[in-house]
């Protein structure tokens, strides 16, 4: 009992020490120089075969669809008839039944002649017995061919069904139909886009951080994305950065001298309460250094889970003005 209590006490102490170590891990909040929101997945939806469009779903842009939902239906009356015919041919067993009957007759005739020769030698000569054996072999080959033809017919049914499926296009993922290009009655060729499906559930943020912060950046680190209150579109280049009046010898040293230019480390906690605050994850660190006005930056690719407001509208949108803060965890 004493040993059990000691073990339990040790477990509790270790657990408290582990939790304390986890909470005491230093997180540095690094402000990015620039951040932009892009679509992670936007796919043109086309047909695999040529044909006439019978229906398009949805009929208006901006509607959401679920994965597997039918988006496009082509006229499939001809291929559907071919599937029906192939299915009927496959279900017929006439050739196999006839081949089985022929084999049974040949085997019976051979057995009769062999038995007759055993009862009375010389009833059938060698040539007659050889002919009877050949009839059995021929009937057996016919049965095997009939079974082989049945396998080919089964494969033909599957091929026809696969071809039939190409006339129906289903949604590859949950998303919003952002553009309708063709409508029922239009004829399309193979690969012609009919609509555009956009996934808004997860967005892609391109984040630029001064190169001097590179040693603090790791794949998997969290990034806080904050929607700016102003609605002005983001500039092509980061406005706060001005060309340094004096060039430094090291091109990757601390070059950002203007207020707000450098990503200043901070230990402020992330604001996760506000509706316009999102948390993403660094998925890629671009190996190419971006140089803008003699200032060097590291470009990060961040995936951010999107959210909807009470009116079922996604909050993060392509091109909207945002700020970004890398939550860099201290590492040994």
What's this entry about, in short?
The chain has helices spanning 2-23, 77-91, 94-119, 126-165; strands at residues 27-31, 34-46, 51-56, 64-65, 70-74, 168-170, 175-180, 187-188, 193-210, 222-227, 277-285, 290-292, 295-305, 322-329. With 332 residues, it is of the alpha+beta class. Residues 17-23 and 231-273 have low confidence and may be disordered.
Tell me what the structure shows.
The chain has four helices and 14 strands. It has 332 residues and is α+β, with helices and mostly antiparallel strands. Helix 2 (77-91) packs antiparallel against helix 4 (126-165) and helix 3 (94-119) runs antiparallel to helix 4. The longest helix has 40 residues, at 126-165. It is elongated. The chain starts with a helix and ends with a strand.
Poorly predicted residue ranges: 17-23, 231-273
CATH topology of the largest domain: Elongation Factor Tu (Ef-tu), domain 3
What is the count of distinct domains?
A: 3
CATH class of the largest domain: Mainly Beta
Structural class: alpha+beta
Q: Name the CATH homologous superfamily of the largest domain.
A: Efflux pump adaptor protein, beta barrel domain
Number of helices: 4
Question: How helix-rich are the residues, as a percent range?
Answer: 25-40%
Shape: elongated
Query: What is the string of helix and strand elements?
Result: HEEEEEHHHEEEEEEEEE
Strand content: 25-35%
> What is the mean predicted local confidence, pLDDT?
82
Main beta sheet: strand number and arrangement?
Answer: 10 strands, antiparallel
Radius of gyration: 37 Å
> What is the tally of beta strands?
14
The CATH architecture classification of the largest domain is: Beta Barrel
Distance between the termini: 40 Å
């Amino acid at each position: 009992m004493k040993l059990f209590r000691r073990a339990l006490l040790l477990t509790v102490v270790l657990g408290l020490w582990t939790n304390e170590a986890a909470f005491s891990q230093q997180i540095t909040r690094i402000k990015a120089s620039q951040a932009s929101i892009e679509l992670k997945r936007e796919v043109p939806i086309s047909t695999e075969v040529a044909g006439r469009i019978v229906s398009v779903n949805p009929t208006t842009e901006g509607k959401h669809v679920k994965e597997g939902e039918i988006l496009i239906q082509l006229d499939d009356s001809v291929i559907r008839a071919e599937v029906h015919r192939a299915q009927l041919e496959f279900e017929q067993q006439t050739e196999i039944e006839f081949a089985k009957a022929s084999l049974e007759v040949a085997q019976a005739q051979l057995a009769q002649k062999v038995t007759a020769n055993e009862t009375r030698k010389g009833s059938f000569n060698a040539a007659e017995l050889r002919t009877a054996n050949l009839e059995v072999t021929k009937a057996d080959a016919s049965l095997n061919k009939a079974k082989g033809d049945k396998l080919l017919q089964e494969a033909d049914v599957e091929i026809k069904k696969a071809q039939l499926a190409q006339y129906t296009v289903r949604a590859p993922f949950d998303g919003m139909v952002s553009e309708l290009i063709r409508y029922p009655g239009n004829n399309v060729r193979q690969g012609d886009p009919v609509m555009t499906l956009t996934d808004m559930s997860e967005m892609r943020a391109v984040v630029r951080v001064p190169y001097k912060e590179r040693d603090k950046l790791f794949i998997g680190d969290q990034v806080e994305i904050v929607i700016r209150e102003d609605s002005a579109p983001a500039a092509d280049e980061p406005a706060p950065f001005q060309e340094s009046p004096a060039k430094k010898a090291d091109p990757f040293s601390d070059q950002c001298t203007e207020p707000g230019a450098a990503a200043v480390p901070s230990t402020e906690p992330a604001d996760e309460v506000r509706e316009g605050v999102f948390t993403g994850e660094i998925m890629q660190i671009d190996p190419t250094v971006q140089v803008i006005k003699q200032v060097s930056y590291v470009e990060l690719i961040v995936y951010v889970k999107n959210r909807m407001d009470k009116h079922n509208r996604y909050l993060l949108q392509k091109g909207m003005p945002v700020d970004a803060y890398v939550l860099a965890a201290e590492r040994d």
